[in-house]
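Data availability (excerpt). The following record was deposited with the supplementary files.
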Amino acid sequence: MGLQFSANFPSNHPLNLRMAPKECYDGAAVVFALDIAAFEGPTHVRDIATRTVVNMVPETATWIDIGFTDVEVSKWSMDYGRTFHAHHRMTADPVIGTTQLVALLQERIGRNEDLAGKIAARAAETSKRHQRVRAEWRKEAEEHWNKVPMTVPRLALEVWRVIKDEDWVLSAGTLHEWARKLWNFDRPYRHAGRELGTGTQIGTSLGVALANKGSGRLVVDLQPDGDLMYDAGALWMAAKYQIPLLIVMYNNRAYYNDWNHQIVMARTRGTDLSRAHIGMDLFGPAPDFAGLARSMGWWAEGPIENADDLQPALQRAVAQVKNGKPALVDAVTQHR
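Predicted structure:
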């Protein structure tokens, strides 16, 4: 069975194969979706050069859906992807529906030793896949460890080392999923969900930080530089209303989502790669995000290009946030 769900399943659970679609869906007879609106992203692999997607789910698999997708989709908005045609659909609260389903399955499995044995064997195989995938991600993250500016996965690991013993919440962005691959999301509230596009991550993060104010939780925003350029004034709001928030800049000095697309299309069309950065780079001059934050009333450090210098700065920033202040550390990274 392939299982899709919101970000509320423990990262280190041996049955978690999230973000590893090949391993997750290989041999799957059933795909069971809980509260999923856009089913295509988690179940397909995308090629941005050809704008094609490859379905990783076997054609013979049965799709089952529990949630409110059927009644939420609106012709007004394009928030949803391709229509999800499940073989079996139940319009229900996934929490209530899943609880009832688990009780029914436990009763059925308890009466069938053969079925219980098959499930145990499948779980053991899935656990092996889980361990292998996470080990591969960790190995990949440690490649180019000493590169300056730091790599994106090393940034994710350095932040994790500082916050892992805190009661933390990740506000929006995930560093191209490296946070989800390397951190342990062990509580339903650990991730508030993705941003909604250009210029929305800082606003989302302020909302998440405000919602958690007074809870004792450390709210972390892995903040892209391009996104902040669209709404730098949002920093003032956090200082004005004393919203404790830790921003760690994901500063690749570029609007790199578009820049990367220009590179892909240049290679596809055989045009000049050296021009792909035009209108997309954020250097010459490079914005001083720490200086900008300080001018808005924040505690801030940076820019930091060498990851060896990052942890002490993050620890100082966490201390400020625990005292009720917003803090920003500007980490400069490779493009991806």
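Summary of structural features: The first helix runs from residue 21 to 25.
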